Amino acid sequence: MKKTLVALAVAGIVAAPAAFADVTISGQVKVTVANTDDNKTGEWGPGFDNYIYFKASEDLGNGMSAFAEMGFDTDSAPEDKDGNPVSGTSANSASKDQKVGLKGGFGTVVVGRMETLMEGALSSRFDDGMSNHANDNQLESSITNIGRVNALAYVSPSFNGFHVAAATTLDGSEQGISEHIDLLAAYDNGPISIAAGYTMLDDDNGDDSADGSEEDKGQDRMGVAGSYTMGPAKVSLGYFSVDVDKGEEDTSDIIARLDYKFGNNSILVGYKSTEDKGASGEDVTSLKFTHHFSKRTAAWIGYRDKELDDANVTHFGLVHKF
Fold first, then answer.
1. Closest by alpha carbon to 266, among 230, 292, 235?
2. Rounded CA gap, 52 and 249, in Å?
3. By three-state DSSP, how is residue 145 classified?
4. What span, in angstroms and rounded, lies between the C-alpha atoms of 144 and 149?
């Protein structure tokens, strides 16, 4: 009830007396306390993953609707025990999704700032929930973490659980439209969920020619992920790879994850194996126990181990969603 009243108040401030079919405010406040033991540091310190979303929709009639979404990070800068900002860190006020679209029998068309299809539909399945996503020993694949871009995307209607999607950038550079391509095919039916994605990135800032003239580097990123739910248990598997032209880099991730729920509790067990051309591979193990006080409030304790450099992270925290 309170959430509805707040949403109505915001609608009254930002709009004329025209009707809003639906306006909602959502977000979370999440604080993680972590200790990284890599034979260099060992102090406990907080991390934040706070954000707020404003969403609106309108029924246009004839089976068509319009929607808009604005999201903002509201993270604070991490501080040391004396209250000073931790070296190399800063407050994160970057925008999250900022998009507007149309939805109907033809599917969904959306334009704006948003996650790539591979990031949102594939890699996010392996987010193990620690707020410090800059940490390179996270379970989620960093191969698809290429940031958000101003994009034009299309998502087809679902046909017996199957749908496809495509996106390209509208960045106003020399690359123009269609230089960055993002493709997705997904199937969701009952306990089975499978998705495959391909992203082509064209880098016109590269200079990899012998005479110093500009030549596009380009990248091909591919991924496939699937999950199967069996009662309280869910098993997820994924494979991701990135190839950079001129043989500069070839990296791949294989990720496995098991989630098990019992009562108001859940356990996560995850494993990631990374192979990097020209460098040693690495293995990451993630363990996490979560207690859900309600659908919106939860506390957890977890542990990550990165085998390559002995970067062990113990973390616990509290999150409230609204």
1. 292
2. 36
3. coil
4. 13
Say what the pTM is: 0.79
Distance CA 281, CA 250 (A): 12
Distance CA 136, CA 278 (A): 18
Domains and CATH numbers, the chain: 2-79+93-321 (2.40.160.10)
At 215-251, the pLDDT tens digits run 446 788 899 999 999 999 999 999 999 887 655 567 8
Backbone angles phi, psi at 309, to 5 degrees: -120, 20
Rounded to whole angstroms, how far apart are CA atoms 33 and 254?
A: 28
Cα separation, 288 vs 268, in Å, equals 5
- Comparing CA positions, the residue from 283, 282, 240, 238 lying closest to residue 258 is 238
Please state, in angstroms and rounded to a whole number, the distance separating the CA atoms of residues 140 and 122: 10
Contacts for 184 with CB less than 8 Å, ≥ 6 apart: 117, 118, 121, 122, 164, 165, 166, 195, 196, 197
